[in-house]
Design goal:
single chain, 453 residues, alpha+beta, Helix Hairpins
Length: 453
């Protein structure tokens, strides 16, 4: 028999839980309170601030890319600006060969001079035709006198012929004289009618006008203006002030109307296109203030702008290949709508932006009283240039001088000064080669970098 020991083996008892530390409990309560306070603070902040702001970093600087294109065909003989150069409106950029345009202009001026002289003959012809009418009237009176004399002579001979004192041959001669006088009177009367009709026709061509206002002269003058316009278009000016970009034209290149030679970017007229999700546009209105930050300058530079318009369609709707959602499987994609934001010109001048730079945009949508779409039309012109108006006074001066020279009694010789003056955009009337030589010598009036091409 086996016996068991008196003292049975027992398992060790589980240790009693340690009492919670007061310090730990305080930390847990403090953390929970901070979380609650943070949630409450975020809720208050969202309710008072965040829900009145919409932001995106899908925003980029946009601007006008003014293309320089020739209006006439020609060969490039000089280039006055290159990429990154700043040019002012009206500054010559490219010169084309003027030889063909000069010949056409000379021909137009010669045609105008010839037309003026031809029209002068119409006016002087009126006096000559009036004198012809007077001569015809005199001839009619003379013919009537001759007819009356011949008729009287015939009557007298006929009375004598009854008594046999006049032979029949004399009567025949007297009758022939009457017939001749009557024919002469008829011819004189016909000549008078023709002279009057010719005077009426000539008067219809000159009545109520002067030589310089005659339709034929006006037509020839318009040809001169057209030729001068083509001559002046051999010089391509800058339509706006800005920076040259994407120059592709080369010396000696034969260019055609409409071909792009370079572009000018006016950096003082840039704006921002911010692409907001469609769910962000619910309370967005024209006129709401905007704060912007450019990646170029960082958070230290803040721009201020205003919403000036919302695009009429999403970016995908105006893309080259719009989405075809009615075919195949469909996956919904949140669309974005471009919103145009105008910037403060002073801030742009202090911190210039370039086209294509990234921007971070924050729109304050507190005020929702503005419209979502532009109302009516603009009260002023969006963009305009006067760079192409300089040639009109020169063309009018050339027409006036040509007409005046051919209205004078003595022909006036065409001097070298009558040649078309250089455009007002070139100083002191220098020709293109002279101006180019001046620029290469460092005396160019414009602040353009001279380059040897």
């Amino acid at each position: 028999m086996s016996s068991t020991p008196d003292s049975a083996k027992t398992s060790p008892a589980a240790p009693a839980p340690a009492p919670a530390s007061p310090k730990r409990k305080l930390l847990m309560l403090s953390f929970g309170a901070l979380v609650v306070l943070g949630a409450v603070g975020y809720g208050v902040w969202w309710n008072q601030v965040a829900r009145y702001h919409e932001g995106t970093d899908d925003a980029y600087v946009q601007g006008n890319l003014v293309q320089i294109t020739p209006q006439i065909a020609g060969t490039v003989v000089s280039i006055h600006a290159d990429d990154t150069d700043f040019v002012k409106a009206g500054t010559p950029l490219v010169d084309l060969d003027r030889a063909d345009a000069q010949i056409a202009l000379d021909q137009a001026r010669a045609s105008l001079a010839q037309t003026v002289r031809q029209v002068r003959t119409l006016y002087t012809g009126n006096g000559a035709l009036a004198a012809t009418i007077d001569v015809r009237n005199t001839e009619i009176k003379r013919a009537q006198t001759e007819l009356t004399r011949a008729q009287a002579d015939l009557k007298r001979r006929q009375e004598l012929g009854n008594s046999g004192a006049v032979s029949g041959e004399e009567l025949l001669h007297a009758q022939s004289a009457v017939d001749t006088a009557r024919a002469a009177l008829t011819a004189a009367q016909a000549g008078l009618v023709g002279a009057r009709e010719q005077l009426a026709s000539n008067t219809a061509l000159t009545d109520g006008t002067r030589v310089e206002d005659h339709p034929n002269v006006a037509l020839a003058a318009s040809k001169v203006r057209e030729a001068y316009l083509n001559w002046s278009r051999a010089e391509l000016p800058a339509p706006v002030s800005g920076y040259v970009a994407k120059r592709s034209v080369q010396l000696g290149q034969r260019v055609a109307p409409g071909g792009t030679m370079m572009s000018i970017v006016p950096l003082d007229q840039v704006w921002v296109d911010a692409n907001f999700k469609e769910v962000q546009l619910r309370d967005m209105r024209i006129g709401q203030p905007v704060k912007l930050v450019a990646d170029l300058y960082g958070d230290k530079v803040e721009y201020h702008g205003t919403i000036v318009g919302l695009a009429a369609g999403t970016g995908s709707a105006f893309s080259l290949l719009p989405a075809q959602n009615a075919t195949g499987n469909w996956i919904k994609i949140v669309q974005r709508l471009p919103v145009r934001i105008a910037l403060d010109p002073k801030e742009i001048a202090e911190h210039p932006l370039r086209v294509g730079l990234s921007m971070a945009v924050d729109v304050n949508i507190t005020d929702t009283s503005g419209p979502t779409l532009a109302q009516g039309k603009r009260s002023d012109v969006s963009y305009s240039t006067q760079a192409f108006d300089a040639g009109s006074p020169d063309a009018e001066r050339m027409v006036s001088e040509t007409i005046a020279a051919n209205l004078a009694n003595a022909p006036a010789a065409v001097s070298q000064a009558d040649k078309p003056a250089a455009s007002n955009r070139q100083q002191n009337g220098k020709t293109a080669p002279a101006a180019q030589a001046q620029r290469q010598s460092g005396k160019a009036p414009q602040a353009l970098a001279s380059r040897q091409l």
